[in-house]
């Protein structure tokens, strides 16, 4: 696994995958009664049957959610979600959205439209920094909670996450998708598609969170003083079936899964070297643009000076070599 590419476990010979329609969602999303057999939506969420389920519009102070009606009772699974974050804001936008795997469902609150002190795992896509941080935003993190810990919104959950990465999610050259893979007792991984269709970049790969109960799957989003449209286009869930799950198989799979854990294509809170590289690259690109602009200005200034000088010399030459009719009339008189 190199060059920032992500290999789905479904492509491995150790697995087979089966579609799970109870936790999948596609257009038109609802039936004639505006309901879905396997999903509920609420808050400020609305359904655009041709495009997506909008969790929040690009308006202030909205919260919306989308939750599965059934818990995801699978040992190993993979969920691919196409989502959209967009709006009119260019310099500031927010607040973000989250994907949840929790014991409870449909309980609104301050954490991107969901309750605080949840039981389970949250994948948080935070697009607006409430305080200074290393690295840039958006910041994508995995945060677990046993129901007793307050998520620190003022610090954007800093030092509360299991792992995180930083990645651009707005104005991307292709549709944005996430792929969350959970292999019990082996690993869990979040990968994202942001630059090219079906080209995945790993955000993090870590030891899996242990669910005490089969979790519901949910999505929620919120806006405040800054705004964005947050929407879910599709959810595709697959059950992953091991050909064998002996202790030796699991240990071999763990060794294989973390064989390149030092690779800079896996960004986590213990090694954000790749994020620093991307920041350096962004600064380098910005410096290149500034230098190009300065060279462009100097080039045009020199051209204008040259044209002005040529025009002035031409005028002087013309004046010198053109007879003065008034002077000629005086001489004739």
Automatic annotation (TrEMBL):
Key words, A-Z: Membrane, Signal, Transmembrane, Transmembrane helix
Cellular component terms (Gene Ontology): COPII-coated ER to Golgi transport vesicle; endoplasmic reticulum membrane; endoplasmic reticulum-Golgi intermediate compartment; Golgi membrane
InterPro entries registered for this protein in UniProt: ConA-like_dom_sf, Intracellular_Lectin-GPT, Lectin_leg
Membrane topology qualifier: Single-pass type I membrane protein
Domain of life where this protein originates: Eukaryota
Transmembrane residue ranges: 290-315
One example of a Gene Ontology biological process annotation: endoplasmic reticulum to Golgi vesicle-mediated transport
Pfam family name, one: Lectin_leg-like
UniProt main location, coarse: membrane
UniProt GO MF annotations: D-mannose binding
Ranges for domain L-type lectin-like: 17-240
Localization per Swiss-Prot or TrEMBL: Membrane
Entry-linked SUPFAM superfamilies: Concanavalin A-like lectins/glucanases
Name of the protein this chain belongs to: L-type lectin-like domain-containing protein
Taxonomic source organism: Malassezia nana
